[in-house]
Amino acid sequence: MxxxxxxxxxxxxxxxxxxDMESALKDAKTANSKGIGAVVNFLxxxxxxxxxxDAHQAEYLKLQQAIADSGVNGFASVKLTQLGxxxxxxxxxxxxxxxxxxxxxxxxxxxxDMEGSQFTQTTMSIYLDAVSAYRGVGVVxxxxxxxxxxxxxxxxEHGGKVRLVKGAYREQxxxxxxxxxxxxxxxxxxxxxxxxxxxxxxxxxxxxxxIEDAKKLADSKHTNFRFEMLKGIRDDLKAELVSSGxxxxxxxxxxxxxxxxxxxxxxxxxxxxxxxxxSLV
Length: 281
Ligand SMILES: Cc1cc2nc3c(=O)[nH]c(=O)nc-3n(C[C@H](O)[C@H](O)[C@H](O)COP(=O)(O)OP(=O)(O)OC[C@H]3O[C@@H](n4cnc5c(N)ncnc54)[C@H](O)[C@@H]3O)c2cc1C
Fold this sequence. Notes:
The protein has helices spanning 3-7, 9-12, 21-33, 50-69, 89-105, 120-133, 148-157, 180-197, 208-221, 235-243, 259-267, 272-280; strands at residues 37-42, 74-78, 110-112, 137-142, 161-165, 201-203, 225-230, 248-254. By secondary structure, it is of the alpha/beta class.
C-alpha cells in the first residue's frame, strides 16, 4: 500500500463509492432507499493502452448488466477516453456503440461525461452520431466553455440529452469564461434553453442559487428534468429536493483510479482541506 492509499484514500471515500463494483451497487441501493437514482461511473480517464481500454469497456458492460440484475434505479456514465479516444477516434466511436447498444437493450440511459477541452470536438462528433442510433444516450455540456451555447444547440437539433455542469478542468482563458459570475450567467442561459426546448435533461450543480433558478423555471415550464449531484456533496440539499417532489440522481464513482477524481473534488472547495487535515490527526 502506497502513501496515497494511506493518507488520501480515507478522505477520497467521501466522494467515491469504493474501489469495486460491489461498493458502487451498495451505494446505489442506499441512494435508491432515499428516493435518489444512481449514475454510476467506473473511474479512469485518458487511457492510452489498448488492453486497459478493453478492460474498461468490459467493466461498463458488466456494470450495466449488474445494475439491471440488482434492480437498481440507475445507469452508467462513461468517459470517451476510457473507451480509447486518446488512441483512436474511430475505435472510441465503435466502443461507445457497443456500450450504448447494451444500455438500450437493458432499457437504460447512458451519459457521456465531458473531459478537458482537447476532447470536446471529437466527443461532440461521436455523440451526435451515436444519438441518432441510440436515443437514450446523453452528453455533458460545460457552462464554463464558450463554445457550449453552439454545442447545446447542436445536441438539441439532434434530439439529444444534456447534463449541464459548470466544468471541472483547468483550461486556457480563450476557451472558457473565467469568473464565477460569468460561468453562472452562462449556466443560466443554457439552462433557459434546456427548459424551453429539451426533455429529459439534467441540471447538475450544488449551487443553491442556480438550483433556485431551476426550480422557478420548472414551475413555469413543467418540463421533464432531473437534478444530479455528486456523492458526498450537499446531501442535505438532495434530501430537501426529494421531499419537495423533484427527481434527484447521485453520481457514484468507483474503481482503483480514484486519485485524479478525488484530487479535483478536494481542491475545488477550500473546506475540503480540513477534511484532509482532520484525517491526518
Ligand atoms: C452529476 C455531476 C456530473 C458531473 N460531470 C462532469 C463532467 O462530465 N465534466 C465536468 O467537467 N464536470 C462535471 N461535473 C463537475 C462540475 O463541472 C463542477 O466541477 C462541480 O459540480 C462543482 O460545481 P457546482 O456547480 O456544484 O458549483 P460550485 O460553485 O463549485 O459549488 C456550489 C456549492 O456546492 C458545494 N460544493 C461544490 N463542490 C464541492 C466540493 N468539491 N466539496 C464540498 N462542497 C462542494 C459548496 O457548498 C459550494 O458552495 C459534474 C458534476 C455533477 C454534479
